[in-house]
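Exercise 3.2. Students should predict the tertiary structure of the chain below and write it as structure tokens, then compare their answer with the key that follows.

Predict this chain's 3D structure.
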Amino acid sequence: MHKDSRFCPLRWFGVAILLITLVWSGCAPPPRVAMPERPPVERPVAKPPVQPPKPADVGDDVFTAAENFYRQKQYDKALDTYTAYLSRYPNGSWVADSLLKIGMIHREKGRLAQALSSFQKLSLDFPNSALAAEAEVASFPIYYQMKNYGGVIQRATSLLKQRLAPDIYRQTVDWLAQAYFASGRAADALLVYAQAMGNVDATTQLAFRKNMESMAAKTDPDELMRLVNRIGQPEMQGEIVYFAAAGYFQKEDYDKAHAAIDLFRKDYPQNPKRSQIDALALQIKQQAEYEKHTIGCILPLSGTYEAYGKRALRGIEMAQYMFGATRPSEPVTVLVKDSQSTPEGSAAAVRELADAKVAAILGPIGSADSAAETSQSLGIPILVLTQKDRITQIGNQVFRHFITPEMQAEKLVSYAVTSKGLRRFAVLYPKDSYGTGMMNAFWDRVQAAGGTMVGAEGYDPASADFGLPIQKLTGAFFQGQPSGTPPNADIDVLFIPESPARVSQILPQLVYYNLKPRLILGTNLWHTPAMMPLAGGLDAELVCTDAFDPDIEKAPVPEFVKLCTETYNEKPGLIEAITYDSASILFESVLKPKIRFRSDIRKELLAMPSWIGVTGKTRFLPNRDCQKELLIFRIQTDRFLDMTGF
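Answer key:
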């Protein structure tokens, strides 16, 4: 290539400079333009900030105040404040809440009609509110209290068709079941619970089952069995069958109980109640497994009451002998256990007799609580020989055959009022359990007979001075009168529940302090020859009561007295006589052909017509206490004159 055509940077740089110079020099400068002056800027004056609009008064403060009063249980203030809210804000946000709380307050105060009015207004004005359901539930206890069970049933049934909160649902089911049960529809009540089980949590299920058990225990088991097929859930069906079996057991209908148990084991073998049904079956088996011809007997053959125990044993031995003589083909075995005169010994004796599978138990004498409780727990009928108050309330297996303070008081008061026409009574008694019990029984009978109790004075059982209580009865003590002054209290009848030895000390002091009743009454403790000398020289008539008299000529007493005299060389007393009758009653009852279970013995005793024995007529009342016709005697210096016929 030719060397002149090569690119030379320096040459081109010079050319560029030359061109720029020519352009610059050939262009005229632009004319200057005058700029107008800017006017002064006025700065804006600061304005006060704009306040937001004041919110409308919607009553929140009033409602909050009412709620605070309600939480503090200041119900009157809360009621006034809720009412003020409704008056000032009839369309407010808290109207429904206020109506509910107003109803609650009225209900709490017992104003049931006003409470219902408030609840009903809430339901009508706010039918779609959750509070409407609460108002319905709140009204249930009111209808229930008013015994308007139909109202509860109607409203609860309707409410359950809605979608409810869990707590509202639980309460509604509860009230519906309770209303059904109260109206005599136990099966429907149980069905309500059973059908609700799948809709509640485990805690509520437990509560429902507890209520079901309580209801089922009071429901006829036949009705329970009819209910089984109405329940769709197998587990609940099994529970109802169990409840029915338990009901039959309580009614002592063991055949039907067995049938229910068999059904349970066949159709519901995995049911949670299986262990309980097996225990029930075992109890029924124990009722059937006993020695039909064996009677247990508990007596104090040692210890404090040994003398009474040995006399009672005579009565039992004579009863066994006489029963065998009249019914040789049906011998009776008697197993005798010593109570050792203690409660612990009595309870141990019951357990030993239970192991021996006795049909029933006779005894003990005196303190019988522990023996009765043990026998009741084991399901063995027991016939106790005691005056202990309310002993038969221990349970349905406990019977009593003995004379009680109430029996004696009733006989004595009846004689005084009916035979003698006397109305003014007083009691002089020792302050011990025997004397106090007799005094209370006597007082009750006097009032029941329309008599007047002038007074009742107690004394120290260890004292031999009876002057102070006697003067209190006469009124002399309160007026400061000396002894021998005519009393101002006119006492017709004086009751002294004491032993003959103490009565012999009291009677002279009655004369000394010028207490002169026309009739002086005593208990069966007076029915002894030791009282005869005390009758001499008295203006008053001495009278006592008892259940047995060996000198009565009416059968079967003479034969019994003869047997005792020939066997033991002395006449029988009350202890021998009452144990003789008690044993005879049991022998006769346990050997009835229809007796299959121990419970049948109990039923036989209750169904027994008046038993005519050596202690008179006897029968057992529904409370299993005995009813006896006592004797009444006028004490004379040479005999006890029978005044039973008045």
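Discussion points: The first strand starts at residue 291 and ends at 299. Residues 195 and 232 are 8 Å apart (CA to CA).
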